[in-house]
């Protein structure tokens, strides 16, 4: 388990190494092409040292990488502020966002798919403003109103990934407890359930409820998010939220275990169609 920056460095290095070997170059060849010492290329590829976005551009040019989407993703992993506005809007909130949250948003903004299990609250990408405010106030009780407003704005701005071109594809499994827990009061929950049904009808959203009747399941260990990226699967990462930080799992064995767990949860959950009926029933007081 690593923090966000360490994961990004190592994944960036591994991808650059793959691109170098794909171009038929040794690390010495790459170093000569960009005017560096070979040890710098090696340190970057192993994730032992950080790399500036300008240096990543040099390497990508040397490897003749023309895929614009892949270049943008790798520059994001290097911490670039020079990508599109869509991928750096959160910088305006740096003063109120914890580093771990910034790391997550930066990865989320570049991901092509998200698979998530939620056991306590509605996923942030599907929250209404009122629900987001109630959750944020409960989670960070010492915030003043200005700080609370800023964090709610961030939560809502994150939802733009579902309306992007192409949009993030979201597959979410919600434990029934998420729907039963009254956050913000009855009116807030009524609107939130309506919002979930609206989102479930979007082609880029697959929503499934895991009812109490399913009994014990693999997700009882806690919620998780699996982020996958365009152009390469080697950058996929599992994110586990903790009270004061986020943990990132990047080993292939961990990714496979969580992917299999998610597939199992989907099998035991209600179908997307039955999920709509189930949420409507809860909304009607069932």
TrEMBL record:
SMART domains: HTH_XRE (SM00530). It comes from the Bacteria. SUPFAM superfamilies: lambda repressor-like DNA-binding domains. InterPro entries: Cro/C1-type_HTH, DUF5753, Lambda_DNA-bd_dom_sf. Residues 16-70 form the HTH cro/C1-type domain. Pfam families: DUF5753 (PF19054), HTH_31 (PF13560). This is XRE family transcriptional regulator. It comes from Streptomyces incarnatus.
